[in-house]
Queue: 2 jobs
Job 1
Amino acid sequence: MGIGEYADLKLLTDWTARIGMNIIQVLPVNDTIANKTWQDSYPYAAISVFALNPLYINIPDIAPFKIKTNQRNYEKIRKALNQLESVDFEKVLENKFIYLHILFEQEYDHFKTDPAALEFIKSNAEWLKTYAVFCHLKDKNGTCNFNLWPDYATYTLMS
């Protein structure tokens, strides 16, 4: 949707092998979404050393939309963003999160009991829980600068 995605790596890998190349080098793909602006496109300003950037998720790989208007609207915006001459980072980001939230709401009942999802959460609990809380507070407070947050600026196990 308007930008390269993790799913594109399979196509790149196949092409690389086909032409006889042995290595693919990419910029860091850690989460850099701090302000939800084009400045978040800088790959070396990660907000997590563990979390991948949700910007590069391929929406159709998550699940099909159950509401057909969501599917039609997604396809319309995907087509428009893919036809742009250059990446509209902020528009891609805005729309990725719209459709990620739609799919989260749609798939939540499945996700909360899915053995693979539960195993991922369990095996990544050391960083995932604090990352999730940080992302929530960052979005709620409109900044990743926790020194500016009125509440929960200092992390404690009891927070």
Job 2
Amino acid sequence: MSHTVLQPPPTADRTTGSARPVYGEYPAPGLACAWTSELPHGAEPFVQRVVPDGCVDLIWSEAGILVAGPDTGPIPAVMRPGEAVVGARFRPGTAPPVLGVPADAIRDGRVPLRDLWGADADRLAEAV
């Protein structure tokens, strides 16, 4: 499967000496894209500015599954060393029927999927 890496691989930043996360987007049927982001072990925590794109994302991490956005402004997202995150980005307007909640109810938010789906969210997390 082809993909696009949007940030450089984890190498030392010349200005700070810290490693940056590797971010990639991948084609995914029915979605805007699937994406991954990973910060190497031994790196400093990294703050990524997420810019608004009108989309809603499902984000899988060690903390569980979050529903993100749509955002109306930049949102800081902190990655910790060794953290790996996987996301599924819905095309604008396609998330509400799937998630069962209007987009404006989650605008600028990060909501645990469990708050929207209850135990079904736990079953999805276990399946993934």
